[in-house]
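ingest -> fold -> write
write: protein_1
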Amino acid sequence: MQEAACRLLARENLTPDDVSELANLCRQQGATPHSPPKAPSLPASAFSARTAGGALRLNSISEVKGIEALNPRAPLTFTGEPLTIVYGGTGAGKSSYVRILNNACGSKNRRKIFGNVFEATAPQSCKIGYTVDGAAKDLAWRPADGLQAELAALEIYDTECGHVYISAENEVTFEPALLAFFQRLVDACAAVDKLIEADLAALPSKQPVMPAEYTTTTGAAWYGRIGVLTSAIDVKTRCEWLPTHKEQLEGLQARVAAKNPAEQAKQLRTRKTALDKFSYELNALRDGLSDAAVSALLQSKADAAAKRKAASEDAEKVFTAAPLDGVGLASWKLLWEQARAYSVGVAYPEKPFPFVADESRCVLCQQTLGDDAKTRLQSFEKFVKGELELLAKDAETALAALVKKVPAVPAAEDFAARLTVLGLDDETVTQKLREFRDGADTTREALLTATAADQIAAVPAAELIADVAKLSGELEAKAKGFDDDANKTDKTGLEKQVRELEARKWLNEQMASIDGEIARLKKIAALNEASRLTNTTALSLKKSELAQSLVSAAFIQRFQDELKALGAARVRVELIQTRTSKGHVFHQVRLKNAKIPAATADVLSEGERRVVSLAAFLADVAGIDTDTPVVFDDPISSLDQDFEESVVARVITLAKKRQVIVFTHRLSMLTHLEDGAKAAALPARVVAVNREPWSAGEPGETPFITRKPDKVINGLLNDRLARARKILTENGRTEYDIFAKAICSDVRILVERLVEDALLNEVVRRFRRAVHTQNKIGQLAKIRVEDCQLIDEFMTKYSRYEHSQPTEAPVPLPEPDEIAADLTRLQTWLKQFTERPVPAAGAKA
């Protein structure tokens, strides 16, 4: 609230960025309530603009760009006179200047400043000149800059003050500035709270509803108590789902579902037996491919190879002279042993092999053996039955025995099917078992061909075999549970345990949403704390308290006094405080002693509402003891002659103490103000604003009817006639006639003003109802016949140019020299007449 107050004092209205930043500040403080940011201090002069003290004077508005239809070439200036009257016709740009001041000083119910909606305009900006405590300053201002603190004391009354003086129901209302500040602060809190409420609305609960069957479990009770204080450890303790929980639940569910517990126990033990066998086979596979078994087989391979090499070298010596290659090889040995079997069993029974007696034949080719053949066969037999060959055969036999002992590894498909049959559905265990099988298969294949240990990969670790054994033990425990169930009939306890575990499993499945709900509740708690910071109860109470003080009997009396001063005492209204609601303190001008309930706006006329709102405004201004400007924009709109004159008198009185600037389009208002200022000996200045082809709001010459006759004559002689001469010389008579006719028309108006202001000494004037005789009518004694003749001469001469001219004898427009001579005659006459003394009584003028 202090940050919002500082911003409101600096800028009057908060921007969307301000509201967003304040909401972020609340969110930050809501998230860390124990370490709030340091609150800013309100400036010592926070409300000084509304209290006695510093003097403010408005000097000018210049360099206006892109603001509505304004684009003047000259500045609108306010000089040292207490009263400045800015006169201009409808659409001349007066209200646009007022709106600039409205937004720069933070007036009530400011209207947004647009660019020129009919043209592409430049960026909006202007320069405001003012003086504060004697120091002149120039402020480069843009509508986006909003309130300027040094201009906040500027008071403005215009038709758009309805937010303050006329309610939405067209009832007259009033709210003092300090209360309005409190209201803006309340509105700022509401705007910030709206953003926070949007944050809260964007955080709906996504927490699933626990199934009804678990509502009686301890898990459901905990689930219902989840809040901002629920810790991660608590969530883990309540929601953790381990393999042991799964096994426990499945076991309990099976026990509850079992109709024949004894049969279930039997099936479990059957499965246990199969698991034990499977475990035995895994152990055998592990042992058969252990490092010791692999080492023994490789050593046997090496021994057989060495002995076979020795026997082969011996055979090479024997068979070197053999006509054919390959003698001594395994194929040859097989042929030799078959030949031996045929010889001793069929061809030469009971005869030694090879049989080489006379006439003996080869048992293979049936030819008679020669001496070389007999010798060769005997050497072959000697080799086969030699010691080295026997050692080689023994080593090879031992190797074959070891190879036979290498355990077979089941095929992958068979192994997977075995796992399914055994009911091993734990993916972690089955994956390790498959890896063990695959590793064992790789080791076995390599072992059969390898000659060194580094050619064989080790079998994967077999700790999982213990898991199988553990599972077997668990099956036995389950079987015992079924044995116990076989002796019982009530399963209520089992069912309760099942629901507890099922509730835990459900909670485990919702862990992500539980974590999200806790995070959401923490955000909501922080946002609720942030929203609490925007609570306006204290502001509303303080505003109501201030309203009692500020809208006091003295203020109400000032309001009544202003009504009387404005000639509206007959309007039966009173200013009262109506109600207080969420920081809104309502004050209304209501009908006084009305017998029938009715809205003020329904009874008062438009003019009465106008004068009553002016009374409320002036009562507020009169209650502030400060030397600051007051600006009126057409204050007498909708007022009749009586009210108009009363308003003028009140404005003149106000201008004696403060700078007053009145924007008006009414000549009657201008006349009344000039007369009132003159009567009060109050310096006043009239400024005209015109709508030119390039821009509205262009300061320029005031109309003749607003200027003194001597100044009009000087302007015609020194400016208008000089331009007329130049046009005649450079452009010719046709263009000169147009310009000269306008001058002649203005001369005629000048003569009329001479009659009112000089000849008749302002005793009677147009737009003024009163006839002023005091200290004036005696001057009429100065009038001579010659004066009347002069006026009549000029009225006759210069009226001719206002009428349609005859075709055959048109009246020519006078030359510049002729007009100059006439103006000089009028100037001389005015000076002489003004200085002419009033003749004594009875004497001739």
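write: protein_2
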Amino acid sequence: MPKKSTAEKDKEWEEDAGMTNGDPEKKPSKEKPGSEESPLEDLPGVGPKGAEKLKEAGYTDLMAIAAASAGEISAACEIGTVTAEKIIQSARSQLDMGFKSADEVLLRRKDVGKITTSSSALDALLGGGLETQAITEAFGAFASGKSQLAHQLAVNIQLPKEKGGLNGKCVWIDTESTFRPERIMQIAEARGLDPKKVLKNIFVAKCYNSDHQIVLAEKAKDLVKDQNVKLIIVDSMMSHFRSDYSGRGELAPRQQKLNRHLHALQKLADSYNIAIYITNQVMANPAMMFGDPTTAVGGNIIGHACLPGGTLIQMADGTIKPIKDVDLKDFVSINFKNLKVEKCLSHAKFVNREISEVYEIDTGYKIKASPTHRFFKVDNFEIKESEAQNIQQGDWLLHISSMNFEGTEQELPEIELEEMITISPKGAEILRKAIREKSFTRKTICAHLPITARQLRRVLNQNYPTNVKTVGVLKTMQVIDDDFDDYIEPFISHKHRNVIMPNTLNAELAQMFGYFLGDGNLEKTSVRFTDQRREVLEKYSEISRNLFGLDGYVSKVKDKNAWRLNINSIVVRRLFSELKSKYMEYISRSPNNIVAALIRGFADAEGYVSKKKGHICIAQKDEQILKYIQMLLLRFDIRSSLRKGRRTTHMYMEGRDMVAFHKKIGLSATDKSSLLEIWSEHYENTFTRELLPINRHEIWNMLKEVGLMPSSYMKSRPNSYKMIHKKDLKKAVDALLKTKLAADKRVKFMEALINGDVMLEKVKRIIKMPNTEPLYDISIPANENYIANGFVVHNSGFRLYLRKSKQTKRIARLIDSISLPEGEAVFNVTEKGIED
């Protein structure tokens, strides 16, 4: 029998669902609208056979379908992605999947329960005990107390609330045969509970592979609903995943499967207000940057997703560094109460070598991240976390928009100056005689000198110049004395010239180095610049004269429409070579006038101003340099956008950002500068559109609600216009803040968005790609976010690291928490269970 095509299967699916022309007919639901428990058969677009297929594939309720991707449903049910997308949209329309305001989330957080660990120190570390609505991971070596804590929690969950329990039952998914009913009875007796009754309230299932483990987690949902289960224990999480998926080639499917498992557990925690406690093994990790070298097997599956080593991180002192090089210092972070920049201390840095794929997200700013690394997505009046793998084209992500650093002029590395001299004929005769008297030959004495025997012969016989250090060494050897200075003369030539060396990185040097970054080269004894405009190179020759006391030499490049500037100095070459290796740190810690000078020099070399389209474009082969310049531009409230060309990457600025560039940075070339001024005047007198994903119709209605004329604050637009311009939003918010809606959560959100240090950028494309390099992450407990390549990124989770101390003593360290500071607690494992 021939295999059916996807189109034929789609047609069968539609006929089963009673769909006409691909559109589902609405069916009455037996449940309330919006109920997750509505039968799948009642879902528009799904018939009895389709519902059966979905259930067989593990999609047993509306939420499971709504949270799935079109690709997953398509593969599971053997239908096309278009049909799968319609099913998902139908499920989403049946559920309340919208955003909630922060005060609503706070209200839900009041329902969070705490389960005592029976150790006051450990409870204090966890903010009162193990939380519901969250996954807590405990990892540690054998006998560190992970399973002992699990047994204690399985008993304590049954205690009344006033004694630290939740009057609930426990599900235990046992992957390593660690559950011991005898231990439960021992702990129960110590707590004054009926051991048999306690055992009846714990539902245990052994699992034998990772698929079985996932099925048991799904089955646990029925127990949670029917048996008042308040705690699920998985001991241990990684055991079967580790054995079922071995080798680097299996990492991607393992992580994908593990992520789905974790999401299912988190969904249970959120939906039913229960606690999830999972354990994990450890292994030695030589790549751990700081602290104990042990790390959780499978990477940091709860606490940390990761970024490539070259991702640029903004530090609080202004320094911009690749994440692989950052130290545990103050970082720039966003306070979500007012969307303002704050300084926050990092407590840990991690490296993960096991992530085999990453997502590249392009909003004009670009970043690569592991699938589970979280970003902040904005939709209307809400900010929501979203993992990289769930971000879609068209989403609006949170970025940093403005940063202010005082900065200080940076001390330059010490560059040894070359002082050249010549020896007079009389001095040469005295030196030859002194060498003979000390029984040296030219060869033996040159073993101590910074010149060769041939060079010494030329110095003595041909008045050849030498470094003043040569004379200094001869004095140290007592071949000559200080009176010999009467026979030496300073020597200056085109190659060897006296150089004035600045002590700090000033604006002129920053501008010159910026040009060098864009279009400069290090030659053997000089620094070389190239440009089509002679006037630009004359400008940089003048800067060289002011900085180093050196005139550059400008000449025409043969057979090319270009000019070349040569600054012939070994010393200047050494300085630029030193700066090239550390320029990110030097510039980013400098005051804004010096930062602006570097950007001006770079734009002089690589930038142009379009005559027709009204934008500045800077092109560069090294995309990393442009990402660095992008982050520096944010100090001047200038946004830019990266686009990949065939051979180079281009950075564009237009509109209000072009105006700011003209005022705060500028260009040296007369023709470019004049064109920039013309476009700046145009944009200053023109409405520059900056759309925000805020529902303009809702703002219109809010203005009407308080008796204001909406058209006085925002232009009337057709209904197809969903978003609002920032200028209109600001006028509307300023008006609403003077009305009864001033305290409205929507108005407060818009006020913070307008006045905060953040901006919203639309995702243009997102690409999944393979990864072979180590990925890094940092932990910032206070705000749980930091700035990476201009994006506001996030990590969070409850992670306990347990280790064994002496005898019964165990030490627990809180590695990560969304709201709690890092710390340690000491507890004991005794016959009675966990104790202080």
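write: annotation protein_2
Residues 251-272 form the longest helix (22 residues).
The chain has a mean pLDDT of 83.
pipeline exit 0
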